[in-house]
Write a structure and sequence with these properties.
By secondary structure, this protein is α/β, with parallel strands linked by helices. 52% of the residues lie in helices and 12% in strands. It contains 26 helices and 16 strands. The N terminus is likely disordered.
Length: 705
């Protein structure tokens, strides 16, 4: 009997399954009060997270950790997701359960937050690594290990310098076996064409205001030599590029699988990508021959418009916006920054050339160069407005570790802010001779306010074309909201969150009641600000909607067709998924049906009847989708026509009336108010009609690119 048991026991004894989970994390930064900068919805997804997720998945799929190890990759973005280290430890650390954390793409202003997270994860038992521009840049241009980096090594955190495409699998294997080195110094620049294209994670995408936006780094490196830039000292001056074929294949797959229809090509300078023409031609082929109509924005230099055929090819490929480093309108400042490739006299022609291609022009201006003064900056902003870019992002000159400026300041003994949390391009991190303390930042915010004044936004929208109107309009909403918060737009999102207990070391954790009262006040202020912004944008729309091609019947037809295409795409997706479910059910239950038919014909008949009902439900869902498409299209056209009649081009008369009504109420003139009842109702209905019309218009465009 005992022998029999010994023979049977191995059949029922299973070897415990091993698991290894990798968390790829983008850290956020802290605000002035020590709270994590976090939002309900983000705006720009991280390309670095997508790159590392693809590399990790490729390494895991190769089976290098062994057939008995279950592997998973998780993306965590501190800007839009809560990171609860204790909860993650309970779930992923234990017997036969191992996990590693890669704090990826860490910029200098994110380094303090990344340091805090790295220490927490390490103390919780996670194998912890940190890399990115700060680590790579600071170490590359330092004679010794920077003290903030050495402190992490001393805490048991692994530092990774350089690009990991050629060795990420080895690093992950080291992490799994608990043998990570303190420091990986990766000198060689990888051939990124051999690496997988950045991965689209549908769960991660849902955390962003526009979840159908993807990112791809089609190339890395930059041939120029700007003194304030870290790119050349981290990714090098030699351009390394992905092939057009691989990019086109991934774009098509993402479009069909995840409905990704807008991309940010994160290349520092797409115009100097040797494969640019092939990539654009491939995108043109997708648009014109395969129905994969994606749009994208890209970064280029100020000379890119002179490349023969480049603007037209980019336009046909779906480029909606170019991001151009103008940096300064003062030639002396450009020379001081070693950006001599920029020619101030060409800026006007450059902007006009992109506009002729139907592409919006987004310039950048850096404030804090040697020849800048409060007066000269104000004059430069006025001149920039006359040149006519559709958008502009302003930055305060920041001596980032990894740049020539930072090395030069260290050698010359120039004071620099010791708190890297402030190295975010909107804090004073140096003392400038032409600005009193605080004046530099004041000048910076005045530049934002001047460029994004109602008058300049109106002028921009009145001269832009039909293709770029709503894209620029939506960005105005984003930027105006960011200016209200006093945070750079490229860091912000929608609806600020402040987790009570996750605060920077050195700041006390508030009590529950006090924090709840704070959040209630902030929430109320945010709601009021959103309402004010809504009416400001509505006024902006009313004053610009009837200009140029935006009022043409063709625009309405295109809008109606676009809605129809969106709903049709959704209907096809539902049909495909329903068919897939049906096929899966058919495949997986074939044997079960066979057994049922043989043993119980009655059960089999009921099963077939249920399957027939499933088929009818699928057909009804398709019909419902078609009906919904028609109804929404007709409704939108009615609202569009109502909004385009031109009866009202401003809410000024309504604002004036509501202001007078409020004055009567405050002065106690209730009889006058009662006598105004018919006019109150009439103006209320007009105001509601205007607001609803604008809301329908804006809501539709907000979900389209």
């Amino acid at each position: 009997m005992a022998a029999s048991k010994r023979e049977i026991m191995p059949i029922f004894t299973r070897k415990p399954k091993k698991s290894f989970d990798l968390f790829v994390v983008r850290p956020s930064k802290y605000d002035e009060e020590g709270y994590v900068v976090r939002y309900l919805k983000g705006v720009l997804p991280s390309n670095t997270l997508s790159v590392l997720a693809a590399l990790a998945q490729e390494a895991f799929d190769s089976g290098r950790l062994g057939p008995d190890v279950e592997t998973r990759v998780h993306i965590l973005d501190d800007v839009v997701q809560e990171i609860d280290v204790k909860r993650l430890r309970k779930r992923f650390i234990g017997p036969n359960r191992r996990a590693a954390v890669c704090l990826a793409g860490v910029q200098t202003n994110q380094f303090p937050r990344a340091t805090d997270l790295a220490r927490r994860f390490k103390d919780a038992g996670f194998e912890t690594l940190i890399g990115g521009f700060h680590v790579s840049g600071a170490i590359a241009l330092s004679e010794t290990m920077p003290p903030e980096c050495q402190a992490l090594i001393d805490a048991g955190v692994t530092l990774v310098k350089g690009e990991v495409e050629d060795c990420f699998g080895d690093i992950l294997e080291d992490a799994y076996h608990g043998r990570l080195k303190p420091f990986y110094d990766i000198v060689n620049k990888p051939d990124i064409d051999k690496a997988p294209i950045p991965l689209i994670d549908p769960i991660y995408q849902k955390h962003f205001a526009y979840p159908r936006m993807g990112t791809i780094d089609a190339s890395r490196g930059c041939p120029f030599d700007c003194s304030f830039c870290t790119i050349i000292n981290v990714q090098g001056r030699k351009m390394r590029c992905r092939s057009a074929e691989k990019i086109a294949q991934q774009v098509e797959a993402n479009f069909k699988r995840h409905r990704i229809d807008y991309y940010f090509f994160t290349d520092d300078n797409f115009a100097r990508n040797k494969n640019r023409d092939a990539i654009l031609d491939a995108l043109i082929d997708l648009r014109e021959n395969k129905g994969v109509a994606i749009n994208f924005m890209m970064q280029v230099d100020t000379k890119a418009w002179r490349i023969p055929g480049f603007v037209d090819r980019a336009s046909r490929a779906g480029c909606s916006q170019v991001f151009i480093g103008i940096e300064s309108l003062n030639a002396a400042n450009l020379e001081a920054a070693d950006k001599t490739q920029n020619s101030v006299d060409d800026f006007g022609q450059m902007i006009d050339a992109w506009h002729q291609g139907g592409i919006a022009c987004h310039g950048t201006l850096i404030i804090g160069f040697p020849h800048d003064t409060p007066e000269s900056v104000a004059a430069d902003v006025e001149r920039l407005k006359q040149l006519g870019p559709d958008q502009c992002s302003f930055f305060m000159l920041t001596p980032l570790p990894g740049s020539v400026d930072h090395v030069r300041n260290q050698r010359n003994g120039v004071w620099m802010d010791p708190d890297y949390n402030n190295f975010d391009s909107y804090h004073e991190t140096m003392r400038l001779p032409n600005f009193a303390p605080g004046q530099w930042q004041e000048t910076y915010w005045k530049a934002w306010a001047s460029f994004y004044s109602f008058e300049n936004m109106r002028a921009i929208l009145r001269r832009c074309n039909e293709r770029t109107y709503w894209g620029i309009f939506k960005n105005f909403m984003w930027y105006r909201n960011a200016l209200r918060e006093g945070i750079h737009p490229m860091i912000t999102g929608l609806w600020r969150l402040r987790p009570r207990t996750d605060r920077r070391p050195g700041f006390a954790v508030e009590g529950r009641l006090r924090h709840a009262l704070r959040r209630w006040r902030e929430g109320w202020q945010t709601v009021r600000a959103f309402v004010a912004l809504f009416f400001e944008l509505e006024e902006l729309w009313l004053q610009t909607r009837l200009k140029g091609e935006t009022t043409s019947p063709g625009y309405l037809a295109a809008l109606r067709d676009k809605l129809g295409e969106n709903v049709q795409s959704l209907s096809k997706s539902i049909t495909t998924q329903a068919a897939g479910v049906r096929d899966a059910i058919g495949d997986r239950t074939a044997s079960a049906r066979e057994w049922i038919n043989e043993s119980a014909s009655g059960v089999s008949q009921r099963f077939r009847a249920g399957f027939d009902r499933l088929q009818r439900t699928r057909e009804e869902s398709i019909n419902l989708g078609n009906n919904l498409r028609g109804r929404l299209a007709r409704l939108l056209v009615r609202w569009n026509n109502a909004g385009r009649r031109g009866a009202i081009q401003s809410r000024a008369h309504l604002r004036s009336y509501w202001s007078a009504l409020g004055s009567w109420v405050r002065r106690g003139r209730l009889i006058r108010v009662a006598a105004e009842t018919p006019r109150i109702m009439y103006n209320f209905c007009r105001d509601v009609r205007l607001s609803v019309t604008f809301f329908v218009y804006f809501l539709h465009e907000l979900t389209c690119e």
